[in-house]
Write a structure and sequence with these properties.
Order of helices and strands: HHHHHHHHH
Radius of gyration: 18 Å
Number of strands: 0
């Protein structure tokens, strides 16, 4: 059963990236991996459930990539900022752009309510708490700060993805994100 799930997610990921959610045919997708619509319905309920699984997989990969980038930067504050910027920059990736940032919200609703986003929020809250305890970030409510940082990065990525010229929008977004985020610092950068 896990093998079927993996096959379906892989095929859907390819189809959704190439054609978009609405144009991707479930018959073509299942036939491409030698399965039936029944296997799709059994594993995911429907096409929307399959999209949710694909979005979760990609969004989780995005979080791991951002974390790896943050780990390569000196200092907890700089790492947190680098992770947010990395997430925003991923909006230029065509697969991320189409599946996670355009089709995902249109079909699945508010991304801040997705399980993968909830996990990222919790990780960010813990980092903010540590930064507050170390006197790097102002003594504000850690959850509020984490929600604002995460929400800003998410909405910035959504804007980049939806813009007519993402590469032109990206530097403006990053500059504003950095300016917003540094407002949380206890001492000016």
């Amino acid at each position: 059963m896990e093998e079927n799930r993996t096959k379906l997610i892989g095929a859907a990921r390819k189809a959704f990236a190439e054609k978009g959610y609405s144009a991707a045919s479930m018959d073509d997708l299942t036939a491409a991996v030698g399965l039936t619509r029944g296997a799709l319905y059994h594993n995911f309920g429907d096409k929307r459930g399959l999209l949710a699984a694909v979005v979760h997989q990609i969004d989780t990969e995005m979080a791991f990539r951002a974390k790896a980038i943050g780990e390569g930067v000196a200092g907890d504050w700089n790492a947190l900022l680098a992770e947010g910027i990395a997430y925003i920059e991923m909006a230029l990736d065509p697969e991320v752009q189409r599946i996670v940032l355009l089709d995902g919200p249109a079909v699945l609703g508010d991304p801040s309510q997705w399980p993968s986003q909830s996990h990222c929020l919790e990780v960010t809250r813990i980092k903010v708490e540590r930064l507050i305890a170390d006197g790097i970030v102002k003594p504000v409510d850690a959850e509020a700060a984490a929600r604002l940082l995460s929400g800003t990065a998410l909405n910035a990525a959504l804007w980049v993805a939806a813009s007519d010229n993402p590469k032109d929008v990206l530097p403006k977004v990053i500059e504003a994100f950095e300016a917003f985020a540094t407002g949380l610092l206890a001492r000016p950068a």
